[in-house]
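Q: Convert this sequence to structure tokens.
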Amino acid sequence: MYLCLRCFYVSPRESALCGRCGRGLGGRRCPKLHKSPPSALVCTRCGSPDLTQAAPCLPLTWLAQSLAAGLVMLGLRFLIGHFPLVFCATCRASAAIPAWLFQTTPMVVWNTCLRLVTWLALLWTFSHFLPGESGQKLRSAMGWALKGLWRLGSRVTSWLWRTLIAPRPVKKEQGQKP
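A:
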């Protein structure tokens, strides 16, 4: 978007002329809308002497980009400032569903996950001290296992969503009017 500094009208980015005063945005324009410098007497591309008056303009793309960057920074500031709240709410929700499925408490699920993560971190660290390619093979196998667990978790989550949460269409019996 461009702001015409002659009449203060905001024109779309594709505009060659100001929508209010009709002057050329950023320079003089010929009937074919070729752009020429504000001091030109004829068009620099086709040589036409019929040029519009030039109007100084200000591109507003920087304003939109600055506004978007500011909104992203505000969102990140909110998340960082409220990280404990967001983290606790996410952890509680993620522990409540498996606890309900396995008929246990969320604290048992949370402790089991923490123990599993601790053992995986120790195994990952230990794999760096193995000689030769053994450590690399162990880390590769752990990566494949974690990818498999991630896929399994996402499939179970989508299955739970489809069966428990997603709305089910009501089947109409034959012979009933809609």
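The chain has a mean pLDDT of 82.
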